[in-house]
Write a structure and sequence with these properties.
With 177 residues, the chain is mainly alpha-helical. It is 92% helix and 0% strand. The protein is built from five helices and no strands.
């Protein structure tokens, strides 16, 4: 039911156009449907659908170039390369394949750069977290040491007071005898 799906996609395209939305994804979808129709048909009708697919991919490519939207650029160059092979236009197929490889590598480099940056940021965060944890552990140990010293001082003072009281009682009894 490619033809029914294509009619629905054209309706979507017109609605998006009325709303002023970008068509770069719609053009790629149209290109894909026409390419699939070109596979299913034969002869002149097949070439007609393949040419229509190529036209839609070129329109999507133009829109994607304006915003430098690499995922659509990648898709368009890949499919245009394939379409040009089907249409026996090998020079243009080679050009599109070269651009596809360029944008694929660029996209992979961007993803790798993002992952490296994320790893660096995570490392720095973990490092700061470890330092903060160590400082907090040191503060906790100091607080515990001070608390133990205070406890020891209170116990020692209590023993001294108790000793003074005992000595005072013994002295008092001795004085009475």
């Amino acid at each position: 039911k490619f033809k029914e799906a294509l009619a629905l996609l054209n309706t979507k395209f017109k609605l998006e156009e009325e709303r002023g939305l970008s068509h770069r994804e719609t053009y790629t979808q149209l290109g894909r449907y026409y390419m699939d129709l070109g596979y299913r048909e034969s002869g002149a009708l097949s070439n007609k659908y393949l040419l229509e697919s190529k036209m839609n991919y070129k329109k999507a490519l133009e829109l994607a170039k304006q915003t430098n939207y690499k995922p659509v650029l990648l898709t368009c160059y890949f499919n245009l390369s394939y379409l040009n092979v089907l249409l026996d236009n090998y020079k243009e197929a080679y050009h599109n394949q070269s651009n596809y490889l360029l944008y694929r590598d660029s996209l992979l480099n961007e993803e790798n750069t993002k992952k490296i940056t994320q790893s660096k940021m995570q490392y720095e965060f973990d490092k700061k977290e470890a330092v903060a944890k160590a400082e907090q552990g040191k503060k906790d140990a100091d607080a515990k040491r001070i608390k133990n010293q205070q406890y020891f001082a209170i116990v020692a003072l209590g023993i001294i007071v108790l000793a003074v009281v005992i000595i005072a009682i013994i002295q008092f009894r001795s004085n009475k005898h």
